[in-house]
Design goal:
330 residues, mainly alpha, three-stranded antiparallel beta sheet, 7 helices, 6 strands, 4% strand
Length: 330
Amino acid sequence: MGFYNRSGKEIQPQDISEQFGYTFNPMGRGDSRFIGPNGEQVSDQAIWKMGIDQNLIIPGPGSEADARAMGYTGGNIEQEAARSFGEREMEGMPGYDSQIDPATGLLRSPYQMTDPDSILGEYRDIVEQYGLPGLEKAMGGADELAGIARDTGFSPYATAQMEQQRLEEAGQRDTLQDRIAGARATGLSGLASSGGYDSGARERMIRGTGVSGLFAGQNIARGGAESRAGIGASDAAYKQNLLSSLPGLYSGLATTGTSMWNPYLQQATTEQRYGQDTKQFNIDKALAERSGARGFELDKFKLQKQLQSSARQSYAESPSPYSFQSDLYT
């Protein structure tokens, strides 16, 4: 039964027994050549079993079946030597310098694209500080005009015109009364100076001035009524025009409000799109990094297999493949 250590040197049980606390007794028989710390005696096979359990030995030609029976699961000396040769030749080979953060699965922060600072707050502050107050005032003015247009009474301007007209009409009546009184006084004074001041003449004169005053008063009243009717008609036309203009007025205010928020909404859309592009960029780069790492490991695996294949070919061509001086071990 031949066994080898991990360096490829053929060994005997006594070469490894001391590692387990057993002393070699050259006088003992094959089943009791080793003495343990408590005086117990064990066989060569028990020492080999300990070496297999500790992964210290590799079976050589003709020993693999026995090693398997003792629980060995590795390769034979040719396979293990080839593997060791490949690993030894790969020593010092730089590994793949991955930029993937194992905690996140993405690129490490210095290599990630990041979103710029948002300026949505600046847009919102400008609109809320300067735009909305003016829009609210304009909306209040529009609502006030809408109330005037829908009111069945006179508008404030027409009411003021009506009051002005009434004052003017009252002034005209006062002037008329002054003129009638003056005309009577003048007429009576003339009758008295001409000697024709009797009751009949006085009555006729008073009647005449009264009739004239009546007609003049009627003219003042008629003129006042016509003025008020004109004011009412103008006010009705004004309200009708105002009512017709309300849809356009409210539409204009709505357009103004929309135009104030449009830059904010456009910026929000831009930032959202940029954020999506940033995430896609980071994901694409992380996938490319993973692909690079996978390619590196695959190339490394291929190289190891090539080295192992070369080593096994060397075994096949070597006159003493299991010699400790073989190039597979040195």
